[in-house]
Amino acid sequence: MPKVLKCDPTSISFDDDGRPHITSQYTLASLRLASRHLHDLQPVAFPTETVYGLAAIALNAEAASRIFSIKGRPTDNPLIVHVSSQSMLHSLLLPDFTIPPSYQTLINAFWPGPLTLLFPTDITKIPSIITANHSTVAIRMPSHPVARALIAVSNAPLAAPSANSSGKPSPTRAEHVFRDLNGKVGLILDGGPCDIGLESTVLDGLHHDGNIRILRPGGITVEQIEEALRLAHFGHPIPRVLVHRRDFVDDAIEQAPTTPGMKYRHYSPAIPVTLLRATSHPPAGANSISPSTLLASLKSSTVAKPPPKVGLLAPSESVLAKKLLQDPVIQWHRYTLGSLSEMSIIAQRLFDGLLSLEQEGVDLILIEEVPEENEGLAIMNRVKKAASETCWIV
Ligand code: TXA
Ligand code: MG
Questions:
Q1: Closest Cα to atom 32, ligand 1: which residue?
Q2: What class, spelled out in words, does domain 273-393 have in CATH?
Q3: pLDDT at 94 > cutoff 70
Q4: Does the N-terminal peptide bond of residue 95 adopt cis geometry, omega within 30 degrees of 0?
Q5: Which ligand 1 atom is nearest residue 202's CA?
Q6: Hey, where are the domains in the chain?
Q7: Which residues lie near ion ligand 2 (Cβ < 5 Å)?
Q8: Model-level pTM?
Q9: Which protein residue has the closest C-alpha to ligand 1 atom 18?
Q10: Which ligand is nearest to the CA of 144?
C-alpha cells in the first residue's frame, strides 16, 4: 500500500528566485521524504494545480523509465519536465538558445501555472526517454505550492506525466491516484483537490513563422494567450494562435503522435462513454435521435442488465438532462458539472465526475457537450477523447 502524506499548501511560500519557505514542520518532513524517494529513483505522486502528477528525477533515465512502466505508457509519448525557478529552466536549455519574445511574454503572464512550452532539447543533458527522441523538450513551472516546493527541495527538475494508468482519466484528488496506482507507487503526497482539474496547455512557439501552435488545449485558454500577446505588443505582427486540428494539422504529429496522444484512446473510464450533442441541425450522415429514442436504446442496451444504471454528466442548466432524468425506469446517477456561466468549475469537476461515476458502478456514462470556447475548448478536447460514441440529440 502506498504511504499517503498530507501536505499543507498554505504553509508554503516562495521568494523571487523560487526558493521555498515552509512553515509547517510536517509538510517539510513529507517533502524531504519525497525528495529522498526521488533521489533513490522511486517515483512519487504529487499534486499540481492541474492534475496529480507522477514525478521522477528528469535528468536520470532510469528514474524516468520507471514512470513509463508504472503507467503502462507507450515510450513514444514524451514527458513534461517541471521546474521551480527561472534559473532551473535556464540550466536545462541549450547554451546558445535565446528565449523568443513571445515565450518571455507568456512566461511573465502565466508562470508559475498551467502552461507547458516546447524548447529545443539539449541532448547532452536531457535523456532521450524524456523527449521520446524528439528535437524538443516540454517544460513547465507548476503553481501548486506543493509541486513547486517538491522540485525546489529535491533541487532537481522533475519529469511528470499525470499520475494515472495510461488511457484513464487524470487524477484530480489523492484518492484517485490511490485507487488507480495502488501497489505500483510507494508514496503519494496529498495536497487536496486540484484547482484547474485539466492538464496544462502544451504550446509550440518555435516555428519560423513566429506563430503559436497549441498542441493540447488546457489550463490556460487560447483567449488568455491571445490577450497576453496583444497586451505585450512586443513587435509586429502579433503572433497568431493556432489550435491543432482546428487551425492546422501537423503531419509529423499525426505520423508520430506525441501531443495530445493522437494514437491512444485517452481519459476513458473502464465503462462506455457517449457524448450527447443537443442540436436542431445535426451534420449530414450523423447519428441523430430524439431523447425518447435515446432512453429506449439505453433500456435495450446490451451493456447494462435491466434496469440500467446510467451516469449523467451535464451542466446544471441542461434542458436535455431534465428531460432524461424524468424516465423512472433508468437508475440515474447524476453528477452535476456546474453552471455554463462558470466553465472553470466544469473543467475542475470533469475528471472527478468520470472517476466518481465509474466508482459508483454505473453501466455507461452520458456526457453533454459544452460550447468550445474559453475553458470549453480543453473540456471538449478531453470529452471527445473519453467518448467512444457521439449522439446528436434533436
Ligand atoms: O498539467 C500537466 O501537464 C500534467 C501535470 C502533472 O503537470 N502533466 C501531464 O503530463 O498532463 P502527460 O504526460 O499526461 O501529458 C503530457 C503531454 C502529452 O500529450 C505529450 O505528448 C506532450 O505533453 N509532450 C511532452 N513532450 C512533448 C514534446 N517534446 N513535443 C510535443 N508534445 C510533447
Ligand atoms: Mg496524461
A1: 259
A2: alpha beta
A3: yes
A4: no
A5: 23
A6: 3-190, 273-393
A7: 162
A8: 0.95
A9: 259
A10: 1
Q: How far is the CA of 202 from the centre of ligand 1 (A)?
A: 7
Q: Whose CA is nearest to atom 13 of ligand 1?
A: 161
For position 260, what pLDDT does the model report? 45
pLDDT, tens only, 146-168: 999 999 999 999 999 999 999 99
pLDDT tens-digit series, residues 318-361 = 999 999 999 999 999 999 999 999 999 999 999 999 999 999 99
Q: Nearest 5°: CA angle at 320, between 319 and 324?
A: 120
Q: How high is the ipTM of this complex?
A: 0.99
Identity of residue 294: L
How far does Cα 260 stand from its chain's mean position?
10
Instruction: For domain 3-190, say whether CATH 3.90.870.10 is its number.
Output: yes
* Helical segments of 212-342, H only: 222-232, 251-255, 291-299, 319-325
| In the chain, alpha helices (H) | 25-39, 61-71, 86-92, 101-110, 128-131, 145-154, 174-181, 222-232, 251-255, 291-299, 319-325, 343-359, 375-386
Q: How far apart are CA 213 and CA 241, in angstroms?
A: 6
Cell of 30: 513529507
Quote the cell numbers at residue 292: 425518447
Decide: 136 in ligand 1 pocket, CB within 6 A: yes
